[in-house]
Amino acid sequence: MTKHRMVSDLMTHSVHRVHADTPFKEIAKMLADHDITAVPVVDADDRPLGVVSEADLLRREAALPDAAGLLAILDIPPLEPGKAPTTADGLMSAPVVVARPDWTVVQAARIMDHHGVKRLPVVDDTGRLVGIVSRSDLLRIFLRRDHLIREEISGDILARTLGISADEVSVDVTDGRVNLRGTVERRSLVPVVMRLCEGVDGVVEVTGSLDYRTDEAAAVRPPAERTRVLP
Predict the structure, then answer these.
(1) Could you tell me the pLDDT band of residue 5, with boundaries at 50, 70 and 90?
(2) Tens of pLDDT along 70-127?
(3) What pLDDT was estimated at residue 3?
(4) Spatial contact of 169 and 193, defined as CB atoms under 8 Å apart
(5) How far, in Å, CA of 73 to CA of 66, rounded?
(6) pTM as predicted
(7) Nearest Cα to 54, choosing from 27, 34, 72?
(8) CA distance linking residue 71 with residue 214, whole number of Å
(9) Does the structure show a pLDDT above 90 at 22?
């Protein structure tokens, strides 16, 4: 059976992190030095509290007093003196949304979309940080080579799962687009084949033409009732 890639397959395992009292400048330097766009904020037990991103840092800078008077033109009120956050606990986006290593790519993508976030800290069974997965990490599955997608469909789905040989159904994959042609035994198998192929990591779309030898619905359809003429 085809198997979705797990978050553990795609996540970054070596994660830079900061603590709640980490200063603004230290966070900014960490992002620049390591060419990253965000960093998790963790507590003393390495459990995520939130995430500080470049956008969070820029938001803080944009809210500082404006000596040039540009904020007045843009109608953006500056923060009162002493109100601008200077450490991670005031800068971070919280509460944090996390993922688990055994989640599928589909699960992680749906959580990101639902919460409108670009990355998810990954935690183990104890809630401790073990990695981080980003939208760009999830998109890597669509860079799978066509021949690997074709082998998974032909071998795992058609041959081993459904018992359909290469002589019965041919599989062509170009840029992640799967084209199926051939004949399956039963009509009910057609949507099953299409659905399983659509679920393969890296598949963009599934098209083609599948015929069938037997229509089960026609075979069990009751005969038309006969009209009985009473004497």
Answers:
(1) confident
(2) 545 445 555 555 567 889 999 999 999 999 999 988 899 999 999 999 999 999 999 9
(3) 61
(4) yes
(5) 11
(6) 0.68
(7) 27
(8) 72
(9) yes
* Cα angle: 88, vertex 68, 66; to 5 degrees: 30
Total number of residues shown for the chain: 231
Would you tell me the crossing angle of helices 24-34 and 54-62 to the nearest 10 degrees?
140
CA dihedral 94→40→53→12, nearest 10 degrees, is -130
Question: H or E stretch including 198?
Answer: helix 189-198
Residue 177 and residue 13: Cα distance in Å, rounded?
Answer: 31
Please check whether residue 201 is in contact with residue 7, taking contact to mean a CB–CB distance below 8 angstroms.
Answer: no
- Long-range (24+ apart) CB contacts under 8 A made by 192-196 are 192/162, 193/157, 193/158, 193/162, 193/164, 193/169, 196/2, 196/157, 196/161, 196/162
3-state DSSP call for residue 61?
helix
Give the list of residues 6+ apart from residue 119 with CB closer than 8 angstroms, or none.
Answer: 38, 51, 112, 132, 133, 134, 135
| Tokens 């005969």 -> residue | 223
CB 70 within 8 A of CB 48: no
The whole-angstrom separation of Cα 10 and Cα 26 is 28
pLDDT tens per residue across span 193-210: 999 999 898 899 999 999
What residue ranges define each of the domains in the chain, with the CATH number in brackets?
7-141 (3.10.580.10), 144-218 (3.30.1340.30)
